[in-house]
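testing teh design pipeline on a random one, pls ignore if ur not involved
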């Protein structure tokens, strides 16, 4: 009866942990903006890309598209609409599944208390919550790595005993490991270490028994052959990408050691001084379990600790070599999260066992108290993860503000092409998203100075041609200036600025639990978003300052395009309105000058007063109209396509509009 009561109590606590894991992964799941490569998941889903189509020509040489195809299949099977929530939903469910996998892996080996602690750790650890709330590879890496560890354990256990290999167990391990290997290449060295540990254990245990050693040698030899056959296309792509990858800097031992030391704090409690002190609790608990724990858990703990250490060394060594000195991202260490979670749970339970053995204290009460402290340490960063508006750029805040405050289709300018790509999932309907330069941040000061000067001139040109444009700035200009390097501030072109601060990202940065380097950039880059813009009265003042007191503004009906030479053009389709702002107090009679080039055939344009001009196909032409009178304030001129009907619309690319 008591056994049944404990069983039901364990199941009840485990169910509560699963519910908590589901809540922190599903609540406000669609709030955060997509970032970096994660935007490709959204774009492929929105484009209706086929589940198998993505395998034929995957654009990334150093990745495997299994998780992306799983997401596409999930959306198609359940016929879900494509939005910020549904694209992330499969990965949140995968994250919840990892909690269950760790629980059932730990329970028969370390006991029910440790199993509940491992599930609790996986449910609330900010590192795993972060990975589970984004559409990317690493939620799948954690789950499949945990499955591979679960499947590997009975195979390894048999190798340490005088027993023949179990082909069924080997098959499960192969299946789980190859599945994990298709989620991300960071799993490969982890799988390799498991195979080496297994081979060494089998040889050491069975070297005196030739028949048993021969039986073990068959699946051990078959393992690398199977891996080579199944993963050969991706192995080739990996080394191709490594050759094409530009070198960073020479990898130094100190930096490598710092990467090793930084893994556990980021995955557990963070880098705050009190979090590092608290980390000593599970560490000391693991040490006690290894040396003084019960006969049941001690060998399992020693093996897991040894396996984790070798896996960490192998993973970091491989990425140091193939990464050519670039900083290691903590997301690459996702295959190590499962053993870290289990070891942390073992350490917490170890303290309970020690106090029970030495002071006759109820170890369950101690374990619960220590677990409560862990959850208390996680509350602030977990809350920040749930409410995170961007990683780290707040694209959706820009979208909402723009929709509420912008006029007609308006150019929305960002600094570089990568930011524009990242922002493409949150582009307002009224915006034309464009960028100033293809380059991102430059490490060389001279290159950075040239890029800054180029961006300033490009923005000046944009404001001359599109005076109503807005500029979204994510850079921390105060931190960009180095000795002998000039900088610039976009405010010189705009009268107003609205500022959004990503306080949740700053919280994750301060606690040291954010797994991506974007959170630890120079100054507040990406954390603070500034939208620079001009109001109608500012444009009126600018018009008054012009020699003609006139300022052309694109109204309804226009669209925009950036050509390969990085120039931005306004496009006239069949009909559009030009708003001419007269900032003076007297009417102005001037000639309207339009420079444009049509595509797909000649294009005849008429104005609202009946004037007409024909632009020749693919030839830059200039039309200077007869004098037109513009009254003070806003005037409207309608441009209409009067070309002969051809069944299609021939775009007219406007290079400039001025007054003579």
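output:
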């Amino acid at each position: 009866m008591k056994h049944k009561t404990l069983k039901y109590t364990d199941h009840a606590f485990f169910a509560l942990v699963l519910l908590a894991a589901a809540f922190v992964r599903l609540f406000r799941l669609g709030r955060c903006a997509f970032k970096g490569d994660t935007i490709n998941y959204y774009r492929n889903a929105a484009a209706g890309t086929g589940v198998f189509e993505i395998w034929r020509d995957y654009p990334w040489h150093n990745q495997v598209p299994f998780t992306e195809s799983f997401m596409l299949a999930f959306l198609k099977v359940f016929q879900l609409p494509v939005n910020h929530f549904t694209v992330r939903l499969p990965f949140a469910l995968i994250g919840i599944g990892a909690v269950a996998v760790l629980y059932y892996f730990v329970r028969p080996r370390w006991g029910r208390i440790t199993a509940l602690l491992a599930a609790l750790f996986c449910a609330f650890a900010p590192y795993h919550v972060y990975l589970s709330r984004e559409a990317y590879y690493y939620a799948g890496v954690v789950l499949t790595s945990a499955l591979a560890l679960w499947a590997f354990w009975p195979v390894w256990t048999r190798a340490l005993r005088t027993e023949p290999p179990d082909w069924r167990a080997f098959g499960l391990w192969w299946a789980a490991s190859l599945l994990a290997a298709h989620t991300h290449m960071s799993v490969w060295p982890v799988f390799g270490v498991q195979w080496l540990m297994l081979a060494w254990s089998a040889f050491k245990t069975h070297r005196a028994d030739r028949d048993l050693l021969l039986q073990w040698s068959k699946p051990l030899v078959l393992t690398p052959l199977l891996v080579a056959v199944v993963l050969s296309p991706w192995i080739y792509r990996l080394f191709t990408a490594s050759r094409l990858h530009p070198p960073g800097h020479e990898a130094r031992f100190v930096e490598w050691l710092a990467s090793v030391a930084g893994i556990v704090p980021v995955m557990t409690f963070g880098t705050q001084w009190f979090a590092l002190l608290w980390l000593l609790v599970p560490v000391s608990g693991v040490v006690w379990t290894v040396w003084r724990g019960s006969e049941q858990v001690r060998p399992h703990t020693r093996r897991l600790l040894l396996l984790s250490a070798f896996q960490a060394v192998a993973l970091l060594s491989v990425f140091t070599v193939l990464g050519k000195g670039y900083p290691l991202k903590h997301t690459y260490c996702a295959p190590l999260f499962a053993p870290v979670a289990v070891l942390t749970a073992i350490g917490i339970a170890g303290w309970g066992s020690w106090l029970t053995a030495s002071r006759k204290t109820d170890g369950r009460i101690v374990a619960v108290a220590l677990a409560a402290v862990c959850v208390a340490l996680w509350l602030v960063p977990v809350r920040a993860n749930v409410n995170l508006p961007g990683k780290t750029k707040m694209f959706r805040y820009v979208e909402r503000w723009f929709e509420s405050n912008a006029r007609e289709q308006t150019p929305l300018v960002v600094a570089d092409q990568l930011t524009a790509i990242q922002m493409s999932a949150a582009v307002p309907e009224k915006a034309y998203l464009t960028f100033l330069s293809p380059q991102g941040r430059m490490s060389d000061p001279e290159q950075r100075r040239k890029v800054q000067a180029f961006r300033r001139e490009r923005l000046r040109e944009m404001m001359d041609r599109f005076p109503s444009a807005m500029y979204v700035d994510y850079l921390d200009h105060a931190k960009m200036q180095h000795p002998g390097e000039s900088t610039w501030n976009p405010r010189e072109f705009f009268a107003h600025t609205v500022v959004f601060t990503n306080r949740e990202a700053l919280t994750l940065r301060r606690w040291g639990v954010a797994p991506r380097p974007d959170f630890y950039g120079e100054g507040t880059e990406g954390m603070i978003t500034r939208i620079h813009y001009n109001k109608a009265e500012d444009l009126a003042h600018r018009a008054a300052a012009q020699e003609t007191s006139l300022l052309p503004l694109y109204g309804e009906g226009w669209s925009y395009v950036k050509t390969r030479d990085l120039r931005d053009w306004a496009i006239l389709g069949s009909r559009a309105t030009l708003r001419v702002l007269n900032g003076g107090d007297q009417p102005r009679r001037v000639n309207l000058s339009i420079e444009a080039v049509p595509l797909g055939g000649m294009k005849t344009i008429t104005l609202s007063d009946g004037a007409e001009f024909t632009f020749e196909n693919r030839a830059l032409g200039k039309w200077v109209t007869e004098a037109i009178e513009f009254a003070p304030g806003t005037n409207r001129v309608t441009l209409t396509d009067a070309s002969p009907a051809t069944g299609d619309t021939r775009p007219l690319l406007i290079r400039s509009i001025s007054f003579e």
